[in-house]
UniProtKB/TrEMBL annotation:
Gene name as annotated: der
Organism: Acinetobacter radioresistens
Keyword Hydrolase tagged: no
Keywords from the named record: GTP-binding, Nucleotide-binding, Repeat, Ribosome biogenesis
Any one Gene Ontology molecular-function term assigned to this protein's record: GTP binding
Record-given protein name: GTPase Der
Amino acid sequence: MKPVIALIGRPNVGKSTLFNQITKSRDALVADFAGLTRDRKYGDAVYQNKSFIVVDTGGIGESEQGIDSYMAEQSKTAIHEADLIIFVVDARAGLLASDEQIARELRTLGKKVFLVANKVDGVHAEAAVVEFYKLGLGEPMHVAASHGRGVAQMLEEVLADVPEDENPEEHDKATGLRLAIIGRPNVGKSTLVNRLLGEERVVAYDEPGTTRDSVYIPFERDGRQYTLIDTAGVRRKGKVDEMIEKFSVVKTLQAMKDAHVVVVVLDAREGVVEQDLHLIGYALEAGRAMVIAINKWDNMSEYDRKQCKLDVDRRFDFIPWARIHLISALHGTGVGDLYPSIHRAYDSSHLKVSPAKLTQILNDATEAHQPPMVGGRRIKMRYAHMGGQNPPT
């Protein structure tokens, strides 16, 4: 699992600017689930072959009542889910009482905290950061996030103990097809997980992936190896009743980034809601192969089923390639049919197309639609080749 780094600090100390600097090599994923993660940003980043997720937790208020009293619930969740914490302070504004309060709270977490003094441009950096030593968090690192100065050196130190990414081919061989089950709370994810595993009864072991309670479960079906990534935690066999789940954007992003195929679970009785579309958007941003499972299909009237199908066809017209299944995880109806679609999605995402075939497709396309003229001359495209897989590029 990729480590999670949370950016913590008062408002207007430059956390969002630093977030954008860190994630500039990759498109940042922005979470905007109303009431859950409003104004909280989750970005995927890579530095020197080390992948990680960055969380911009938003500004902590000026009150001195403690973090719990003035930090939004998702910000607190992000801090506790984080592996590493970057505490950002403002070198121009100097040390404030709220900085000291935040530092006291962070020291109680028992996590590695890196103190970063931002906005050192335009001031004498060494003199400006002296007072921050009082926070008891070690030597402050100097950055000017708006110009990108010092960011690389900061990442060097923060990521010093983070291992480089594994060789993808070796990782795939060890884990088989990695399958993530995602969905908003109470759509039946855990019931589906238990159904998938309980049918086969070949779970080798349950290995907690991280402190975020994501569980990696290797299993085998028809001679093929799989690793199921469950963000909600696997319940013991038989305990398939859905519990009230606390949605975690971090766990969902972690699972998707580490998966080959994502199964997005929806509730047929509620239809397609905005959170479902946001989750699918996450999967698209991550470039993951996808299968849609419309759960709780049982006990619906014929009219409600028809309305659900119409809603799904209308709302999912932007992903015509994703196969949609109508299932009942509780009773097992349609669950076995997911596997052929999972294999198809995996094979499509790992498709290898020869340069010769791609070049032929390119030639056919340019014959049908001539490239534009530049400087009075027609652009000539000579050949095409693949840039990568999962997704094919």
